[in-house]
């Protein structure tokens, strides 16, 4: 909000400010006297206790996890401590690993040294923990300040009479956060800028990304689910459509994936223009915009770090899939899954991160065919801690980790969870009591027990060291 610099107003505010300052100074002086008195009293009391040979009881002060300097210290682990950690984690995992199809577990300290390893080089299904790979790769390839752009464009600018020759193109770049409200605001901007009619029609340009809308490696039981939405360069509303159904006499809302994203969006935009009183001469189409088009509206997404924080907090599959193809387009000029996965592999290799048995088929981890080792995930976390740590939800308090019943680790862990029908995983960071912050990856497949409880118990035990 802009304020007018009024001298009269300034003098009034200045007088009020001086009065407030005098009051604040008086209160502060009184408070200082009280503090000094208390400190002197405590100092004398402490001296008396120490002089008598009684050591004052140590008290721990609870600070937010991010403020603890100990989280950044790199304290080494003795062989005895490693053995003790191994026994503690073996006991925590035993109920879940007995009869499990497979598992991969790793703990790595801040210096990149392995503290605990149980089949850490065995690649297993990671579920949504896999989103950490696309998040780190996108930050490297695109940069944390990267913003998606969605454009309205025309062959020429809007004429003096309010008409636009030819089509009104909607050009997408893959923004997973684009909403109907964003498009509606864009139409409003065009109307306020003088657009009154379109000589052609709406034309959607979805050429920035390629590949099938739905990943062929996803399970058939995911068909029609809102978490398995298609991927498109002109993504809108998460590529889902809201519907209502009568369930037992109660009307409930559901979100279902779009069937043909580009055509749906073209029709939606056409309706917005008509509702705004801007007629079009032609029906909506799908077509690439001319290279010499004139930009009429430029909508930019939030920065990549903000988008990734949303993706990791709520485990948004759609964001991950859009990011994967965007990375492929930027790194290799091909906006498909194969190019994105190749970019992920190159990124891991460039950082010296081992990838034994790595097989990736998507960005979200939704495919049951994905395979990744705990050593890969944990070392990725340790290597990219400055970039990833703040993007993860706080265990027991935020996002998908809100319902996790941590005890020792409560407020000391940030992590990404992962679940499929028979996969349970958690990977992130936990601040230990004596060894600073460590990275961990706990991946369990096909457990007949309660792997979630076992993983929470394991994280609590790591935090206790």
Topology:
Blueprint: H1 7-51, H2 79-97, E1 102-108, E2 114-118, E3 123-124, H3 131-141, E4 149-154, E5 163-164, E6 168-171, H4 180-192, E7 197-198, E8 202-205, E9 240-247, E10 250-257, H5 261-275, E11 285-286, E12 294-300, H6 304-314, H7 317-332, H8 337-350, E13 372-373, H9 374-383, H10 385-388, E14 413-420, E15 423-431, E16 437-445, H11 451-463
Parallel strand pairs: 5-7, 6-8, 8-11
Antiparallel strand pairs: 1-2, 1-16, 3-13, 4-6, 4-12, 9-10, 14-15, 15-16
What key attributes describe this structure?
single chain, 465 residues, alpha+beta, Beta-lactamase, D-tyrosyl-trna(Tyr) Deacylase, Chain: A, 3 domains, five-stranded antiparallel β-sheet, 16 strands, 37% helix, disordered N terminus
Question: Short summary of the structure?
Answer:
The chain folds into three domains: 7-43; 71-144 and 305-463, Beta-lactamase; 149-301, 3-Layer(bba) Sandwich (D-tyrosyl-trna(Tyr) Deacylase, Chain: A), CATH 3.50.80.20. Helices cover 37% and strands 18% of the residues.
Termini Cα gap: 50 Å
The third-level CATH topology of the largest domain is: Beta-lactamase
Q: In CATH, what is the class of the largest domain?
A: Alpha Beta
Question: Which architecture name of the largest domain does CATH use?
Answer: 3-Layer(aba) Sandwich
CATH superfamily of the largest domain: DD-peptidase/beta-lactamase superfamily
Mean pLDDT: 87
Number of domains: 3
Proportion of residues in helical segments: 25-40%
Largest beta sheet, briefly?
5 strands, antiparallel
Question: How much beta, percentage-wise?
Answer: 15-25%
Number of helices: 11
Largest sheet strand order: 2-1-16-15-14
Taken in chain order, the helices and strands follow as HHEEEHEEEHEEEEHEEHHHEHHEEEH
User: What Rg do the Cα atoms give?
Assistant: 28 Å
How would you describe the shape?
A: elongated
The structural class is alpha+beta
């Amino acid at each position: 909000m802009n304020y007018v610099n009024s001298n009269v107003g300034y003098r009034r505010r200045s007088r009020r400010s001086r009065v407030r300052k005098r009051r604040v100074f008086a209160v502060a002086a009184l408070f200082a006297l009280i503090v000094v008195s208390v400190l002197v009293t405590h100092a004398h009391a402490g001296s008396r206790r120490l002089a008598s040979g009684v050591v004052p009881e140590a008290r721990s002060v609870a600070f937010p996890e991010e403020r603890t300097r100990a989280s950044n210290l790199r304290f080494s682990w003795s062989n005895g401590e490693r053995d003790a950690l191994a026994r503690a984690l073996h006991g925590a995992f035993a109920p879940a690993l007995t009869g499990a199809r497979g598992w991969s577990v790793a703990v790595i300290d801040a210096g990149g040294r392995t503290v605990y390893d149980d089949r850490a080089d065995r690649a297993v299904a990671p579920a949504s923990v896999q989103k950490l790979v696309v998040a780190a790769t996108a930050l490297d390839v695109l940069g944390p300040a990267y913003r998606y752009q969605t454009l309205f464009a025309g062959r020429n600018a809007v004429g003096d009479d309010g008409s636009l020759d030819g089509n009104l193109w909607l050009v997408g770049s893959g923004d997973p956060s684009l909403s109907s409200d964003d498009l509606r605001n864009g139409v409003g901007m065009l109307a306020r800028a003088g657009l009154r009619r379109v000589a052609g029609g709406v034309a959607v340009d979805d050429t920035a990304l390629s590949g099938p809308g739905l990943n062929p490696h996803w399970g058939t039981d995911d068909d029609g689910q809102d978490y398995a939405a298609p991927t498109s360069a002109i993504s809108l509303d998460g590529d889902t459509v809201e519907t209502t159904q009568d369930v037992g006499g109660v009307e409930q809302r559901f979100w279902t994936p779009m069937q043909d994203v580009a055509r749906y969006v073209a029709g939606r935009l056409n309706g917005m223009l008509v509702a705004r009183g801007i007629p079009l001469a032609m029906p909506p189409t799908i077509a690439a915009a001319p290279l010499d088009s004139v930009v009429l509206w430029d909508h930019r997404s939030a920065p990549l770090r903000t988008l990734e924080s949303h993706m990791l907090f709520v485990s948004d599959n759609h964001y991950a899939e859009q990011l994967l193809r965007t990375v492929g387009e930027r790194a290799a000029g091909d906006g498909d899954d194969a190019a994105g996965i190749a970019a992920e592999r190159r990124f891991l290799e460039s950082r010296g991160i081992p990838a034994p048995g790595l097989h990736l088929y998507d960005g979200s981890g939704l495919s049951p065919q994905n395979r990744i080792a705990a050593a890969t995930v944990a070392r990725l976390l340790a290597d990219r801690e400055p970039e990833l740590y703040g993007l993860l939800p706080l265990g027991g308090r935020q996002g998908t980790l809100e319902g996790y019943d941590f005890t020792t680790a409560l407020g000391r862990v940030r992590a990404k969870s992962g679940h499929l029908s028979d996969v349970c995983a958690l990977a992130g960071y936990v601040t230990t009591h004596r060894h600073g912050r460590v990275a961990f990856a706990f991946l369990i497949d096909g457990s007949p027990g309660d792997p979630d409880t076992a993983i929470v118990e394991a994280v609590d035990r790591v935090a206790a060291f």
